[in-house]
Amino acid sequence: MLANLRDGEDLSHMQPPSTPQSRPNAARRGGGGVLTGNISVHLLVSSPKIKVCVSPQIGNNKDAMRKTWNPKFTLRSHFDGIRALTFHPVEPVLVTASEDHTLKMWNLQKTAPAKKSTSLDVEPIYTFRAHRGAVLSVVMSTSGEQCFSGGVDGTIQCWNTPNPNIDPYDSYDASMLRGELCGHTDSVWGLVYSSAHQRLLSCSADGTVRLWDANTTSPALAVFNEDKNLGVPSSVDLVCSDPAHLVTSFTNGQIGLFNMETRQLVLSLESNLEPGPQPPDSPITITAQEDRHIKFFDNNSGKMIHSMVAHLDAVTSLAVDPNGLYLMSGSHDCSIRLWNLESKTCIQEFTAHRKKSEESIHDVAFHPSKCYIASAGADALAKVFV
């Protein structure tokens, strides 16, 4: 089903829950990560939940990425829900992070015939083991040589990325673990890598956002919201048009832009105002929320410029294609939807995952340079589409 969702349009005739029901599991996944360009981050939060996506300026190449996506691979190896995933910047490689305490790396060109069908299967080529609990977030450096993961144990693990042609039956290589970033005292919900400064940003249930040197395991270079005046951050990302600023969402529904040098809040995004016009060539922040809405904000004024009902259940994840033309959203209604960012219309919808404990899709991602998209599910599966 395709949808053309405009301001104020209602899907009430489809009878979704008017107020999303509380998830039965205590550590639950909802909309509440931040994404710049094509890097998404993820989290577990309590209500209210919000996910922020800072998109690139909308481009002029309207034919870029225009295609119909079809399922290609189902990645089976995790024993519990997959909370996050990230693509290698240039290789056909995917890394998944799971509640089973591990991360797995997959080479999408290393396929074998599936046992019970005519399709191809992919096995993980490497399993990362260091976390003492569920792994909630993962991000890769822009060179692809480093990988970082955050977990319920409050740690950030720093990894060397294995060679994509590694033999999956080789013995475990402890040298892949570069070290551990310590400082957070609660679950690390989101991670984002800054290529401009080779820095890592993290946000945690301990109430802080921290800035790290991605090349060392030294203590954090800076701590934001240390006094917790703004609440508990649920997600964080860089403003793509200005790497000197970061954007953070909080579990109380606030969204703020911060100056990385002064650590001060410079702008609050206001969702309680009526939508207004979007200035031309203005960078935007896109939020996906548990009330089924996706909202768009102007980063210069902080005002909301568009709001739409996008799914039949909580919207949990967002990704923007590398050209800044299309938005992908995932939801606990089991569907992935592709949107034209300029017209705000749905151009494709498909069902990707089954529900488990009232949860379904935890994360979605575009490959930065190849025609792959992927989704992570509570059903312990990752799906790849081409």
Automatic annotation (TrEMBL):
SUPFAM superfamilies with a match to the protein in the record: WD40 repeat-like
Keyword Repeat part of the UniProt annotation: yes
WD repeats: 75-116, 128-160, 181-222, 308-349
Pfam family, any one: WD40
CDD domains: WD40
Classification via PROSITE patterns: WD_REPEATS_1, WD_REPEATS_2, WD_REPEATS_REGION
Keyword Repeat (UniProt): yes
Residue spans of biased composition, Basic and acidic residues class: 1-12
One GO CC term on file: dendrite
Record keywords: Repeat, WD repeat
Region of interest called Disordered, as start-end residue ranges on this chain: 1-32
Highest taxon of source: Eukaryota
Single GO MF annotation: armadillo repeat domain binding
Protein name in UniProt: Striatin-like
Organism, scientific name: Labrus bergylta
